[in-house]
């Protein structure tokens, strides 16, 4: 029995991160399988930073 993995990030957001991190051309030409492991890790790290900043900005101030 196989399990389907669902992406938490939207495709649009992933492409935006790829552009910001400088490997969008690789994704465009080769697909997501063409990026380096390091690039994928940097993409996840950046997404976490963005999410943490958004959560921090949404917290009510005392």
Question: What's the short version?
Answer:
Helix content is 65%, strand content 0%. The protein has 62 residues and is an all-alpha fold.
Care to describe what's here?
The chain has 3 helices and no strands. It is mostly helical and 62 residues long. The protein has one domain (11-58). Helix 1 (11-21) packs across helix 3 (37-58). The longest helix is centred in the last third of the chain and has 22 residues, at 37-58. The chain is elongated. The termini are far apart.
Indicate the proportion of strand residues: under 5%
Q: Helix/strand/pairing class, anyone?
A: mainly alpha
Number of domains: 1
Separate helix tally = 3
* Cα separation of the termini: 50 Å
Question: In this structure, how is the largest beta sheet organized?
Answer: none
Q: How many distinct beta strands?
A: 0
Shape annotation: elongated
Which properties best describe this structure?
62 residues, mainly alpha, 3 helices, 65% helix, elongated
